[in-house]
Specification:
This protein is an alpha/beta fold. The chain has 3 domains: 126 residues, Rossmann fold, CATH 3.40.50; 109 residues, no CATH class; 139 residues, Rossmann fold, CATH 3.40.50. The chain has 17 helices and 8 strands. The strands form 2 sheets. The protein has a 4-stranded parallel sheet. The N and C termini lie far apart (60 Å). The model has no long low-confidence stretch (mean pLDDT 93). It binds iron/sulfur cluster. The site of iron/sulfur cluster (SF4) has 11 residues, from helix 15. Iron/sulfur cluster binds next to helix 15.
Length: 411
């Protein structure tokens, strides 16, 4: 039985700093701003040295999946840094509520804290009623703010990846990204996101003004387990590496993952023959979000950029390649993303796989043959990420992949 653990109380909202692991550099800055606006004193962790991995190895069993090891290692390393008042610090971690271990990271983290930091409360960030605390509650405005943050994050990530490889003036895309993030964070702090369409226009105008060369670099898609796919700490700066090697990274947005979680509730009801509040709410939310996403994609395309995938297309790919009932880990989403990338001209795909992640090995590497049967030109390279894998090894495999792409295209 789990021991009694410290709780995050209402009073702690004004006294405690909440540490959050940084998984998506672009999105989480905005999500953190939404939380600050709602009265939480949050800080995104940026520590990323080898000490993070070592702390992870010390504090969780070594057969635990790599994302758990990194997230817990990053927390423990931060607590030991001397930068925080340990009596006024809380930690926040996500709980997916699915059947996968991501629902249980929180228990591993509490176990790691038991001996040295029993006073530190851990807050569960979840939408599945797995755990709640008196001091942290979602409000409607906070949830809307977070959804907006995901839309803006996906938009900026897509535009940045289409501008950065071709910018004529080095660093211009980074400046524009910083400027857009600052504009949005300012709006959040000063009373909300303002008008969504106006903000989209601002971002699209800013990126489209970047002077660029012709768009002719090999596009390389990134798919995989959600943490390793996005986190530079976990994937050894994969996006930067691809940029340095003369590629254009294509990274599916976070909204895909949210829609995947929401539609899975609806699918469960259909597959197992039931209807409840959750299935009904999910069906409504799905319709609203997909409509908003489509409007955004249309705007992106009007500016001459490639839009993000239409989620209904992803579901169609899933139906042809796998089955929407496969939902452990990132489930059918990974297979469908590989299919959609291949069908839309991004045949070269890096599939990021963390150590210890059985579900995603099955739906990613395990499904690559099926994807290749449908798309013979698909070139899928699975890269393993674990505490002992050196980036030299990973980079050599990526370099080989890139050399082959360039050879084939005679670039
Ligand atoms: S999806 Fe994989 S990495 Fe994530 S919790 Fe499940 S087993 Fe671990």
């Amino acid at each position: 039985m789990e021991k009694q653990h410290a709780k995050f109380t209402k009073e702690m909202r004004s006294t405690h700093k909440i540490l959050i692991p940084d998984m998506l550099p672009i999105h989480l800055k905005l999500l953190a701003a939404v939380m600050r606006k709602n009265g939480y004193n949050v800080e995104l962790l940026q520590n990323s040295s080898r000490a993070v991995i070592d702390e992870g190895l010390k504090n969780v069993h070594n057969d635990t999946c790599y994302p758990a090891l990194l997230v817990i290692g990053q927390f423990m390393d931060a607590l030991k840094s001397g930068n925080y008042d340990l009596d006024k610090t809380a930690l926040m971690i996500t709980q997916t509520g699915g059947g996968c271990r991501a629902s249980n990271y929180i228990h591993l983290l509490r176990k790691a804290l038991e001996a040295e930091y029993p006073q530190i409360p851990v807050i569960s960030f979840n939408f599945s009623n797995t755990e709640s605390s008196d001091g942290f509650k979602f409000t409607l405005s906070m949830v809307f703010g977070m959804l907006n943050a995901v839309f803006y994050g996906d938009l900026m990530m897509a535009l940045y990846n289409q501008c950065k490889p071709y910018e004529k003036n080095e660093g211009e895309s980074d400046k524009v990204l910083d400027d857009c993030q600052a504009m949005l964070a300012d709006k959040i702090v000063n009373g909300g996101f303002g008008k969504r369409n106006k903000n989209y226009k601002y971002i699209l105008n800013a990126f489209s003004k970047i002077e660029r060369t012709e768009r002719n670099k090999p596009r390389v898609g990134i798919v995989g387990e959600i943490y390793v796919k996005y986190s530079p700490l976990a994937n050894n700066n994969l996006e930067k590496f691809l940029l340095k090697e003369g590629c254009e990274p294509v990274v599916p947005g976070l909204m895909d993952y949210l829609l995947y979680c929401i539609i899975n509730n609806v699918n469960d009801g259909k597959l197992y023959g039931f209807k409840n509040k959750m299935t009904r709410l999910s069906a409504i939310l799905y319709k609203i979000l997909i409509k908003m996403y489509r409007k955004l994609v249309k705007r992106v395309e009007q500016y001459g950029f490639n839009g993000m995938h239409d989620f209904e297309e992803l579901r169609k790919e899933a139906d042809e390649l796998i089955n929407q009932g496969v939902k452990m880990g990132e489930g059918w989403l990974i297979t469908a993303e590989m299919g959609c990338l291949a069908s839309s001209g991004t045949e070269n795909i890096v599939c990021t796989q963390p150590f210890g992640c059985l579900p995603n090995h099955i739906v990613a590497k395990g499904m690559s043959r099926r994807v290749k049967e449908k798309y013979p030109d698909a070139n899928i390279v699975a890269i393993d990420y674990d505490p002992s894998a050196t980036n030299v090894n990973q980079e050599n495999r990526l370099k080989l992949m890139i050399a082959n792409i360039k050879d084939n295209a005679k670039l």
